[in-house]
Amino acid sequence: MASAAEQLAANVNWSAFSKAEELQKRIWFTLGALIVYRLGTYIPLPGINPDSLARLMEQQTQGILGMFNLLSGGAVERMAIFALNVMPYISASIIMQVMTTVSPKLEKLKKEGEAGRKTINQYTRYLTVFLAAGQAYAISAGLQSTPGLVMIPGLAFTLTTVVILTGGVMFLMWLGEQITSRGIGNGISLIIFAGIVAQLFQGFASTMTMAEKGSISWASAFGLYVLVAVVITIIVYVERAQRRLLVQYPKRQMGNRMFGGDSSHLPLKLNTSGVIPPIFASSLLVLPATVAGVYGTNAPDWLAETVRLLTHGHPLYMALYAFLIVFFAFFYTAIVFNPSETAENLKKYGGFIPGRRPGKQTADYIDFVLTRLTVVGAVYLVGVCLIPEFILAQYGGNLLLLGGTSFLIIVSVTMDTVAQIHSHLLAHQYEGLIKKARFKSPRGNS
Asked: Nearest 5°: CA angle at 244, between 239 and 245?
């Protein structure tokens, strides 16, 4: 059943879009910011041999560089100034979320409202600079360890790389905040979305090329496209799915009037953890390949065997991938949703779940429902993320260049962006109705 907001959004008159000048300005600003981001992914770092870089990327397609290249829209394979994208900021945000659950000081800041949120955001920015500088230094060291890749290796190249890549991350973080405040919202998510979509057509073109060369049949290629459409449909359906717990509020009498007695719903998403579990799981599984790439041909035998077993499409890789997705689904859900805190908030405002006592019994019931939902959500994430792995095991090679994580990000960001546009249109319509009501009201009325 659709919520009231969804019903309102469904009834939006899209002809009002031409009159919503504020929304048009926000959309144009967002598009301009994304164009600036895409241009930055084509500006390379100074002092790098492009031919040697192309050979390195061919060897690291299964490593962490390959994953970063996908999320950055090809910026890593060009070693552009935006090669790190906004991943350090996302990592810093996740770390701060975890820290707010284990640090009493940060937990107190979180409960202080807007002032505490600003302080936590400032800490997140400081941590982003630290993580970005560390990753930039690791990239500069890795580039210089490959013979012929860096034209003039040394301290100057290291400092230049660290400053440029860290500055690129901070610029994208600022650009994402500008899109959020002056654009249509979800700035950081839209930047990642733009990078992944930039690789989308390359993935479909790769499938068509394999079909033309006879590596796969045209029927198989068509079947893959149909499978993509089915997966996207499933993602849309599941990401919208909610379990709504009925919450009632008692009636209160104030003077001769009776207030309250209303009921609402506590929405619990089927996939509370979002796309974080697949990202964490894939990041851990590509670490051996990344370390082996640093060693090159001198990698130890045990490391080479580990990389072979953890190759995309291998049964052991898929088993560990599924296990880690399930683990991080429960882990991250426990971080972002606290049943005890939710139960206390309901109790504070007089709300209760029918048949459950306020307090601990309500918290236990919410935790019970949330656990069952997380089981279903984890199975859904495993299914979506393992479908590309089964395709790799069947055909070999990365046909679509996009895994389940990429489809999850594309669909989720698209749905959030559409919801933001709907909200702006609704706000514009409400403003128009208020202006008409004021214009038609008699002058004598106050």
From this structure: 150
Which pLDDT does position 37 carry in this prediction?
A: 92
Q: Parallel, antiparallel, or unpaired for β 251-254 and 257-260? A: antiparallel
The verdict on pTM exceeding 0.90 is no
Cβ pair 326, 382 in contact under 8 A = yes
Which pLDDT score is estimated for 5?
44
